[in-house]
Design the sequence.
């Protein structure tokens, strides 16, 4: 693993590079369409970005650790991919390209989820493929979808645009299978006030 300096311990994990497993990459690649323009945020050694570029129109890949991009450039087994545009820098500060449709954020310890969502939306993207909210499997988040405020949610699972997830408690007589199985997209959850943007 390699890291750049960062203040808190969660943020220290965020700075680590560790590749994911094949099942995770497949789950992402299965969601990418041939006409997609993709932005891979925190692209590591480009192993996923290169595969994504082979199945869609264009991929931009942002990675903060120069050593990882140098490592990727040394990989002799990998032929150059013409529609892959690699950007070395900090995704928190780099402007996002204006033609992207889909973001990829494989970063289970992401502490800037809301910032990336805001930047993707502002750039016109409509989907984010990520493991950063539930920190388990990969989900596709509809970036332009309607969201209700947390206070309007009566009970049940929620996923907030700030990256927080949880279950809002309620009266036991309202607990149905539908409540247990649904996830509401929300805004203004209790954790929103503490999120770094
Ligand atoms: C868990 S690794 C995943 C790498 C890659 N997506 C993969 O699946 O192989 C997260 C990556 O995000 C990068 N990263 C973290 N914060 C970043 C930032 N602010 N800007 C750009 N890259 C960042 C780290 O350097 C690391 O390579």
Sequence:
């Amino acid at each position: 693993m390699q890291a750049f300096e960062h203040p808190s311990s969660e943020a220290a994990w965020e700075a680590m590079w560790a590749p994911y497993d094949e099942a995770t990459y497949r789950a992402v690649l299965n969601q990418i369409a041939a006409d997609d323009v993709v932005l891979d945020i925190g692209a590591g050694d480009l192993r996923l970005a290169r595969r994504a570029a082979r199945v869609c129109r264009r991929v931009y890949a942002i990675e903060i650790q120069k050593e990882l991009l140098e490592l990727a450039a040394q990989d002799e087994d990998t032929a150059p991919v013409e529609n892959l545009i690699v950007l070395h820098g900090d995704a928190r500060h780099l402007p996002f390209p204006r033609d992207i449709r889909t973001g990829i954020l494989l970063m289970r310890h992401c502490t800037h989820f809301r910032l990336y969502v805001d930047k993707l939306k502002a750039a016109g993207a409509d989907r984010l493929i990520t493991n950063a909210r539930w920190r388990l499997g990969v989900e596709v988040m509809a970036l332009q979808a309607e969201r209700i405020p947390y206070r309007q949610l009566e009970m049940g699972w929620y996923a907030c645009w700030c990256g927080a997830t949880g279950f809002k408690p309620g009266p036991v007589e309202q607990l149905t299978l539908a409540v247990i199985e649904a996830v509401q997209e929300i805004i203004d959850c209790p954790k929103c006030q503490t999120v770094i943007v």
